[in-house]
């Protein structure tokens, strides 16, 4: 014979934890659903049941880590190519790749904790750390901590405002089918907002680009274009290829780079970001410093190499750490 208290506990557990774990896993796999409201709802539903609240937190942590592990292994297997897919399916601005690389250079694996609450970073960090070769054990430890932090924040918000949330849910219940329409509209608005942000971001990068064929032709004609590699140091260490004569650039000191560049030469900027996001941003920054003949390279390093054009390799760590001294650029 079933104990009533156990039956009620099981019913509450299944009603909250199954959809909660599913939502966390689906979101971490890249489907752009709004996860925060689900976490807040779960926190409110378990406000009077400490055991349920703790188990919900554990399930969220496990589900989040499992989802992130999928992307980590994809990063290990496919490298930076997987980041283009991540930025597309998560509807996040493509600059998140460069920003996440920069944070990883400064903080290392701690990025998986501190970046777990930062929009555009948390989704890119797992495949990025996989591509950069972070050890599996280190990834699991730090990512689990990040998943635990993300879940704790959402659930705690639900616990803190459980009375208001309960009142809201009661009002929605009274609406019946209209409540489903309201929720559906809110989700649609959220997704539309994310797409709008992405569209506005890509539009902000609307700048004339140069193809690999055009760059090769300029080099062959003797136009002596100045080629700037604006990939982060972490990526240059991972992929030491460069376009012949390319200069690595310090993204934190674009003003110094601009001062070193002559205004009468063509400047081509390349990166490894989807839509040449970082290269386009740097090109626009250089233009703001008075340089007008600056264009990002379509497809970046990968497009250049795939077209069969010559490739050099950085000779060592000192090359990665150089910025662009005047005497190295003006030649």
Report on this model:
The protein has 331 residues and is mainly alpha-helical. The protein folds into two domains: 4-204, no CATH class; 212-329, Rhodanese-like domain (Oxidized Rhodanese, domain 1, 3-Layer(aba) Sandwich). 65% of the residues lie in helices and 5% in strands. It is built from 17 helices and six strands. The strands form two sheets. A four-stranded parallel beta sheet has the order 3-1-4-5. Strands 2-6 form a two-stranded antiparallel sheet. Strand 4 (267-270), helix 14 (277-288) and strand 5 form a beta-alpha-beta unit. Mean pLDDT is 79; it is low at 5-10 and 320-327.
What attributes characterize this protein structure?
2 domains, four-stranded parallel sheet, two-stranded antiparallel sheet, 17 helices, elongated
């Amino acid at each position: 014979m079933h104990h009533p208290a156990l039956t009620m506990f099981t019913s509450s557990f299944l009603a909250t934890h199954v959809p909660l774990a599913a939502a966390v896993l689906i979101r971490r796999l890249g489907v752009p659903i709004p996860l925060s409201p689900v976490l807040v709802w779960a926190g409110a539903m378990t406000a009077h049941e400490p055991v349920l609240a703790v188990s919900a937190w554990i399930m969220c942590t496990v589900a989040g880590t499992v989802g992130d592990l999928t992307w980590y292994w994809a990063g290990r297997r496919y490298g930076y190519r997987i980041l283009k897919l991540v930025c597309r399916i998560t509807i996040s601005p493509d600059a998140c790749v460069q920003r996440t690389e920069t944070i990883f250079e400064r903080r290392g694996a701690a990025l998986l904790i501190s970046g777990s609450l930062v929009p555009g970073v948390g989704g890119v960090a797992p495949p990025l750390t996989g591509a950069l070769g972070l050890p599996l054990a280190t990834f699991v430890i730090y990512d689990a901590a990040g998943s635990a932090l993300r879940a704790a924040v959402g659930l705690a918000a639900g616990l803190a405002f459980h009375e208001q949330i309960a009142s809201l849910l009661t009002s929605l219940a009274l609406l019946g089918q209209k409540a489903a329409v309201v929720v559906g509209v809110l989700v649609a608005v959220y997704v539309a907002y994310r797409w709008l942000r992405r569209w506005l971001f890509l539009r902000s990068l609307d700048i004339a680009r140069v193809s690999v064929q055009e760059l090769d032709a300029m080099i062959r004609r003797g136009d002596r274009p100045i080629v700037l590699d604006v990939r982060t140091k972490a990526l240059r260490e991972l992929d030491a290829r460069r376009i012949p004569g390319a200069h690595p650039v310090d993204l934190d000191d674009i003003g110094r780079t601009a001062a070193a560049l002559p205004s009468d030469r063509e400047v081509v900027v390349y990166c490894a970001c989807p839509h040449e996001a970082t290269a386009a941003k740097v090109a626009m920054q250089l233009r703001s410093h008075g340089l007008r003949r600056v264009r990002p390279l379509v497809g970046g390093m990968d497009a250049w190499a795939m077209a069969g054009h010559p490739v050099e390799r950085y000779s060592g760590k000192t090359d990665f750490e150089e910025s662009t001294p005047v005497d190295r650029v003006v030649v």
